[in-house]
Amino acid sequence: MAFKRRQLLIFGGLVLGGGIGGAAFSGILNRKPDVAPTETASPIANNPKPTKSPTVKRSSNPAPKGLYAPVRGDVRIVVVSDLNSAYGSTDYIDQVKQAIAFLPDWEPDLVLCGGDMVAGQDNTLKPSEIEAMWKGFDKHIAAPIRKAKLPFGFTIGNHDASGSSFGGKSTFENDRNAVLKYWNDPKNDPNLNFVDRAGFPFYYTFEQNDVFFLTWDASTSEIPSEQLKWVEKSLASEAAKKAKLRIAIGHLPLYAVSKGRETAGNYLEDSERLRALLEKYNVHTYISGHHHAYYPAHKGKLELLHAGVLGDGPRRLLSGDLAPNRTVSVIDIKLETAETIYTTYDMDTLKVIDQSTLPRYIDAPNGRITRRDIKI
Questions:
Q1: Cα-flanking dihedrals φ and ψ of residue 120, to 5°?
Q2: What is the pLDDT of residue 46?
Q3: How far is CA 292 from CA 46, 94, 110, in A?
Q4: Three-state secondary structure along the chain?
Q5: How confident is the model at residue 58 (pLDDT cuts 50, 70, 90)?
Q6: d(CA 196, CA 194)
Q7: pLDDT by residue (tens digit) across 1-15?
Q8: What is the per-residue pLDDT across 234-264, written as a single tens digit (0 to 9) for each?
């Protein structure tokens, strides 16, 4: 959705991959989906022993009927981001509802959301209106995912609960309190194998199918130094080192990719230092949202998935002349080779996006990033 408070962010601080090429579904599926207080520490233990991911029989090429069906990897993740609509909205557009209805048919091991699950960051909204947004999120998004028994990992977006502050006081305290209340309610359990949830839902780690996930609070452009100490400690942990792959997720990206979001406050400060930190501990991919434009990239040793938007407000990339679109990415992981294969659907047409049509590189204000498949 449109971002009208960039100054507050400043104060506060997938594509087709690999072997898929240009495969695309040529038709359009027209069927409508069934729609099936004070910040306190989490009441659940800091480091509960992770449970082993259950062995579930999966299909070799699972996909919603009529859509292109990619070959399943050892692990499958479906990535969505930026689901919201107008400020205070308690409902979601049809493309969002359809994507949520599709999720079980892709048979993912995990669903990841790049943030902006609701449409807050507006201090004219009353606490009751903020609570109503989260009830709408639960009805249309979280409850169907729980019903399908799909683990749900997420990062907090600026419209969910911006971490911006001024004069030492939280700018959006009501949003932050509402997030804590919703996600620490046992009935809203996201079904994750937590490694460390002391900072949940703002920052935490979990494991899924031999993959280690770290979520940090990138709801503003500055990640606090104390949280970065936690990031380094988490990535140096035995759980992270033993995992076959490591993925980090945060709302704001390291580098800008879309028009209107290339200004300071809309991407993370000191991005090169943050990238070096992730590379130091062999993080494979950083997944982000916020820019409302899909672009799979890499810089140095780190892969970057700019997840695009599913809700309102698609944006154009900084390079090229492609029309903006809404996307959902299916990531299939081959654990032994640490290979990730993307199949990204345009949710307006239900065709698969051919990554070769995307710009070869994007010159962000803070550095050039290169399309994921281009070797440099």
A1: -90, -145
A2: 54
A3: 33, 17, 22
A4: CCCCCHHHHHHCCCCECCCCCCCCCCCCCCCCCCCCCCCCCCCCCCCCCCCCCCCCCCCCCCCCCCCCCCCCCCEEEEEECCCCCCCCCCCCCHHHHHHHHHHHHHCCCEEEECCCCCCCCCCCCCHHHHHHHHHHHHHHHHHHHHHCCCCEEECCCHHHHCCCEECCEECCHHHHHHHHHHHCCHHHCCCCEEEECCCCCCCEEEEECCEEEEECCCCCCCCCHHHHHHHHHHHCCHHHHHCCEEEEECCCCCCCCECCCCCCCCCCCCHHHHHHHHHHCCCCEEEECCCCCEEEEEECCEEEEEECECCCCCCCECCCCCCCCEEEEEEEEECCCCEEEEEEEECCCCEECCHHHCCCEEEECCEEEEECCCCC
A5: confident
A6: 6
A7: 443 333 333 333 333
A8: 999 999 999 999 999 999 999 999 999 999 9
Q: Say how far apart CA 178 and CA 161 lie, in whole Å.
A: 8
| Residue located via tokens 């140095």 | 300
Please answer whether residues 220 and 166 qualify as being in contact, where contact means their C-beta atoms are separated by less than 8 angstroms.
no
Token pair of 236, please? 């140096």
CB crowding 236-271: b at 16 or more within 10 Å, else e? ebebbeebbbbbbbbbbbbbbbbebbbeebbbbbbb
d(CA 148, CA 108): 10
Place of tokens 């945060």: 250
CA distance 204 to 155: 9
